[in-house]
Write a structure and sequence with these properties.
Shape of chain B: globular
Strand content of chain B: under 5%
Helix content of chain A: 55-70%
Radius of gyration of chain A: 52 Å
Number of helices of chain B: 7
Number of strands of chain B: 0
Structural class of chain A: alpha+beta
Strand content of chain A: 5-15%
Largest interface: A-B, 28 and 42 residues
Largest sheet of chain A: 5 strands, mixed
Distance between the termini of chain A: 176 Å
Distance between the termini of chain B: 50 Å
Number of strands of chain A: 5
Helix content of chain B: over 70%
Oligomer: heterodimer
Low-confidence stretches of chain A: 293-348, 430-456
Order of helices and strands of chain B: HHHHHHH
Order of helices and strands of chain A: HHHHEEEHHEHEHHHHHHH
Shape of chain A: elongated
Low-confidence stretches of chain B: none
Chain lengths: 456, 159
């Protein structure tokens, strides 16, 4: 067996063709390899990129790449600044989670410390934040609160959709809590953000102060650091009007337009709120007088109407509520005016539709309440009329009884008088006819008419 | 680069070790095209090597190890993981006994084939095979014993 194996292996010989092929292959490979163009020492030292080293390098490169990507995806690449007073900075990752929340003034520091928004989804975090702002009274329901939303993307990075998600969550949450704000939105650069951080103020305020400085060099930035954003915007508007700056071009062009629009909205809201207060004052006075008159008349005419007093009170409250709803409708109209950016217009249209539906519902409710009130009034009037008729009947009966009694008394008196006259006449006759008889026969009993039987 | 000098050097090396390398390739592979490819790659590595050989035995042992490893790598590739019949080797068998023995050897695992070749054809001892293959002495013994048992079952005693 071994011999068979050895003899077979002996037959395995290299042929000339394989030999030539191998020689040419090796020469060609060595010509292509630069290491063989230099001397032998360099040849041995030149082989740095061996397979093993290449594989190690590739592994390290892949590991670094994965680290970079994970670091990039978990670090905030998008910052949103909310200036409401409090001023808050939210750092948002490309995955749409909140990675940091920072307060930028005293209120903001307290507010941010009380909130746990880290690693939450963008929508949930903003909803929680707005809920806290509304509950703590930072956002009022009259729509006069100004929210300056300034966002910054890191250089070379702009994730589409994050900005829209923030605005959409903001508007939907405010609509959910029946609140409205004047939203002012601007996107700025990373350099501006760094300058704002150096000055220790929020980005929105920094931008407006910078714009104010372009109009008036004497603007003291420190004086406005603690001002609210609405105060800053109104001050900037005054400066625009006084300086006659049109800012049709330049880096502050969008800011200029937004300041003008926001100022107009704020003034409209103030005007509307004044109007509403006046109207509600008048309506509440007239409504309360009418209700008091109605209640007092009901109390006098019918004691049972006092029970209806509560109903009429509740109706007047219902009227006040409906007036409040009307105010709410006006507020929602103001709210729809207040939302500024183009991206919000769709949501504003949805809100308008909702407010229109609410108006229709309120009108229906008012009509139903008015109908109920009219019914109650009619019932009260009917009751009053019924009582009057009953009283009249009672009076008639009483008068009849009184007249009957009077007649009876008169009849009795007349009867007595007649009896007395008759007795007198009879006595006289007795006296005249026979005084003598009085001695013989006893005198008859005098006729006394029975009581109650009138003698006519 | 002096091309005629290099060519002479390559030719001499192939004349000296060509048969050894081709036999190792024939034992390890079953296809003539694969044998030619691996043969060329082994000699390219021989000329690209960094290390300096101490003596001829060292040089021969280095070539055996490189040739076996190259065949192993070649067989690892996906499209070569298939059984190739001995008829593809283009080397005719002179007797049925040769056919029987070579068929039995080809059915062994690569490590066992390597040890059978080195031990029975090249005449290396077990420690030498251990030094060439880099395996432990006991491992080489185990492989050799197992390979002999398998061959004995199929073709009878090898020695």
């Amino acid at each position: 067996m071994k011999n068979a194996f050895v003899t077979y292996m002996d037959k395995v010989q290299i042929d000339e063709a394989l030999k030539d092929k191998t020689v040419s292959y090796i020469i060609q490979s060595m010509e292509n390899d630069e290491r063989f163009n230099s001397d032998a020492n360099q040849r041995s030292e030149g082989r740095f990129f061996t397979k093993r080293r290449m594989s190690i390098l590739a592994t390290v490169a892949c590991f670094c790449f994965v680290l970079m990507i994970s670091n990039f995806m978990l670090q905030p690449q998008y910052y949103v600044y909310f200036d409401i007073n409090p001023s808050i900075e939210l750092g948002i990752t490309p995955l749409g989670t909140i990675s940091s929340i920072k307060g930028l003034n005293e209120d903001g520091l307290q507010f941010a410390a009380a909130l746990e928004l880290k690693n939450q989804k963008l929508e949930i975090g903003i909803e929680t934040m707005l809920q806290a702002l509304i509950s703590q009274g930072y956002i009022t329901k009259d729509g006069s609160t100004v929210i300056a939303m300034t966002d910054v993307f890191k250089p070379f990075v702009k994730f589409e959709g994050l900005e829209e998600r923030v605005v959409k969550t903001l508007t939907s949450t405010l609509a959910q809590y029946q609140s409205s704000v004047v939203l002012y939105q601007e996107t700025t650069s990373r350099q501006e953000q760094k300058k704002a951080i150096q000055q220790g103020i929020s980005l929105g305020k920094y931008r407006i102060i910078q714009y104010m400085k372009t109009m008036d060099q004497g603007v003291n930035a420190e004086a406005y650091e603690q001002s609210s954003i609405s105060e800053l915007i109104l001050k900037a508007d005054e400066l625009i009007l006084s300086s006659g700056n049109d800012a049709s071009s330049g880096e502050f062009r969008d800011l200029h337009d937004q300041i003008l629009q926001v100022t107009e909205k704020i003034r409209n809201i103030e005007h509307n709120s004044m109007k509403n207060q006046e109207q509600t004052g008048e309506q509440s006075n007239t409504g309360s007088n009418e209700a008091n008159n109605l209640n007092s008349s009901n109390d006098i005419l019918n004691p049972s109407a006092a029970g209806n007093k509560n109903e009429t009170d509740s109706q007047t409250k219902g009227n006040e509520q409906s007036q409040g709803d009307l105010q709410g409708q006006k507020n929602t109209e103001a709210k729809s005016d207040s939302l500024l950016t183009e991206t919000e217009q769709q949501t504003v249209e949805i809100q308008n539709e909702e407010t229109a539906q609410e108006q229709v519902q309120n009108q229906e409710q008012n009509n139903a309440q008015n109908d109920e009130q009219n019914n109650v009034q009619n019932q009260a009037e009917n009751q009053v009329q019924g009582q009057q008729e009953e009283n009249q009947e009672q009076n008639q009966e009483q008068s009849q009884e009184q007249s009957q009694e009077q007649d009876q008394v008169q009849n009795q008196e007349q009867g007595q008088v007649q009896n007395q006259e008759q007795n007198q006449i009879e006595n006289q006759n007795d006296l005249t006819e026979g005084i003598n008889q009085s001695d013989l026969s006893p005198s008859p009993d005098p006729i006394i008419p029975e009581h109650g039987s009138p003698v006519k | 680069m002096d091309q005629p000098l290099i060519r002479d050097e390559i030719t001499k090396a192939i004349d000296r070790y060509g048969n050894l390398v081709k036999r190792i390739c024939c034992v390890s592979l079953g296809n003539k095209a694969d044998v030619d490819d691996v043969f060329q790659e082994v000699f390219l590595k021989y000329f690209l090597r960094k290390e300096v050989f101490e003596n001829e035995q060292h040089e021969k042992a280095w070539l055996c190890r490189v040739a076996f490893n190259q065949c192993k790598d070649h067989n690892k590739s996906f499209w070569h993981k298939r059984i190739v019949s001995i008829e593809e080797m283009e080397i005719p068998f002179d007797s049925p006994e040769e056919n029987e023995v070579m068929t039995a050897v080809k059915q062994l695992q690569l490590d066992d084939r390597r040890i059978i070749y080195l031990h029975y054809y090249e005449g290396y001892s077990i420690p030498e095979i251990s030094a060439i293959t880099g395996q432990k002495l006991n491992t080489v013994y185990t492989h050799l014993r197992r390979a002999k048992e398998k061959l004995r079952k199929k073709v009878g005693e090898l020695e």
